[in-house]
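We modelled the chain as a single entity of 455 amino acids. Its sequence is:
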Amino acid sequence: HDWHAAACAAVRECLSQGSLGPGDIACISIDGPAHAVALLGDDNEVIYPTIHSSDLRSTGQALALEDRLGQDVFRISGQRPNASWTLAHLAWLREQEPQVFARLRRIQPVKDYARARLTGDFVTDRYDAIGTQLFDLEADCWSDALCAEAGLPLAALPVVMDARDIAGAITEEGARATGLLSGTPVAVGSGDSVVEAFGVGVLDPGQATIKLATHANVNVVTAKPQPAPLLITYRHLLNNYGFSIAATNSGAASWRWFRETFARDEQRLALEQGKSMHTLASDMAAQAPPGCDGLLFHPYLMGERTPYWDSQLRASFVGVGAHHTLAHFARAVLEGVAFSLRDCLDAHTERINELRLIGGGAKSAVWRRILCDVIGRPMLKPAQEDASFGAAMVAGIAAGVFADWRAAASACVRIDETLEPDPRSHAAYSALFEVYRDVARDLARHSRRLAALAG
């Protein structure tokens, strides 16, 4: 319900602030987060809050799946069992909330639920179907075996269509909620990461995005889907290409946690001065030197995905000394996320020809510089990078405004900045990264011991 309300409010705001009339809209499209589904009962009633990908409540169920069916799940879905995926969420729901599970009739990825509230459809696209871990990646259809494991009949799952297909049209009810005209066509759309990549012109094998957002990731286009144990494997929007993701759970979320936990006064003052939180990050981190005088941060606030795939792994500050100030800790958080993204980049085995930097965290000039020097590769900064921009381009293709994917990218994508790494800074950060990685490998057993003691 929250997503539906937010979508309707966003459309009304666009119509108002964009000085547009409802008749100016040729088509709309939608994107949303993966591994999150609406749990629906009779008459498509929402029967339970959505379980997010960052919610670790199904860790035990994921570990049990790995022990019992890990190879089969990976072979079919292209992904390892993990607490971030819908398959484990459903196992938790069946075990811990059996009365809710008994009422479950349908599941629908959240972007599709928000769209269905406007059109009445029951469809999804391949990207979000794969994101449930109930889809057969090779056969390109729902998996009988995985659906049976989840306790769901195939009728409980939406029809799978192409992202640029028309899912339906705005209903009278949808028109009242959004201010759009009834009958306005609505494209299926896709997951936020892949439409975001499309929206910045990442279309061909070897191109990649490096995303510094709530979750941070390195996403690479491949000639075909190539499942690997350390990666998340999807299909791209075009040419049956693969789309491989290496992800860290706490990207910009680490900075938000730090400033709200340790820098509330600085945050309040920045807001009073009209500064953004990205400017605050730059201002605080700029007061400490690169490497933070020997202070390291591991951003495992919500466990970690690539390359450790350990939901019990926890964050740490290492090397704390009496000489360290709040600015050192602030910069260490930014550097720690950058090191985590280097871990993600190293997990990819495909050749990467080009990196395009996106995400809210990349609005911080200091964080951009840190990331470029840690990675040690040139990065292109697109002028417009929001996932909704890519979703609008998908709508343009669906409506025939653009002839195809490449025509849309050619018309819409512009590069705003090119970042080049500083060789000396990269060498210094590489030495620190070796320590960072060694400590990360030691953290796992200590994190489990602490979790057991904490109960």
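As a brief sanity check on the tokenised model: The longest strand covers residues 216-222. Residues 10 and 178 are 8 Å apart (CA to CA).
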